[in-house]
Amino acid sequence: MTAYLVLKTVHVVSATILFGTGLGTAFFKWIVDRSGSVPAIRVVSEKVVLADWLFTTPALIVQALTGIALAVRLGYPLTRGWLAYAVGLYLLAGACWLPVVWLQIRMRALARECDRGHAPLPDRYWRYARAWFRVGVPAFGSLLVIFWLMVFRPT
């Protein structure tokens, strides 16, 4: 197997991990919030934050490094054409991801506090949850468009 194929395989696998983990954790977080069960929300919030640190963060880093390496190896300029759009959308997704993580950590803390005290979640939790959803939508939309750009490479 050539170095190019290894690099491309790592790039595709990291994209799969990035999108799959993000979609999976977002689904479970959104569903558990609908339940209103503070103990369940606490547990899922803890696991979502953990999954982001174990899977999403490394995948983001690997995705950027392998993407740049592939572009350089193939002679594609990062600032022109479909690849420039992909880079811009990747940066947008990353810019959305940072507040998502911050919100998840805050929601986890509130859920822990309320679960210990057997109290309902405060309004602040629900404001964070709405913001988390609103910021997550453009992040996932960006990743979908990036997949399209990578597959079709429009001129």
Write the layout of secondary structure elements.
Blueprint: H1 3-35, H2 38-74, H3 81-116, H4 123-152
Helix pairs in contact: 1-2, 1-4, 2-3, 3-4
Q: What structural category arises from helix and sheet content?
A: mainly alpha
Q: Could you state the oligomeric state of the chains shown?
A: single chain
- Kindly state the percentage of residues in helix: over 70%
Radius of gyration, in Å, reads: 18 Å
- What is the molecular shape? elongated
Please give the largest β-sheet. Answer: none
Number of β-strand runs: 0
* Overall tally of structural domains: 1
Order of helices and strands: HHHH
Number of helices: 4
Distance between the termini: 29 Å
Strand content: under 5%
Low-confidence stretches: none
Give the overall pLDDT as a whole number: 97
Question: Which structural traits does this protein have?
Answer:
single chain, 155 residues, mainly alpha, 4 helices, 88% helix
Describe this entry's structure for a reader.
This protein is mainly alpha-helical. The protein has one domain. Helices cover about 90% and strands about 0% of the residues. The protein has helices at about 5-35, 40-75, 80-115, 125-150. It is elongated and about 60 Å long. The two termini are about 30 Å apart.
Task: Give a short overview.
By secondary structure, this protein is mostly helical. It has helices spanning about 5-35, 40-75, 80-115, 125-150. Helices cover about 90% and strands about 0% of the residues.
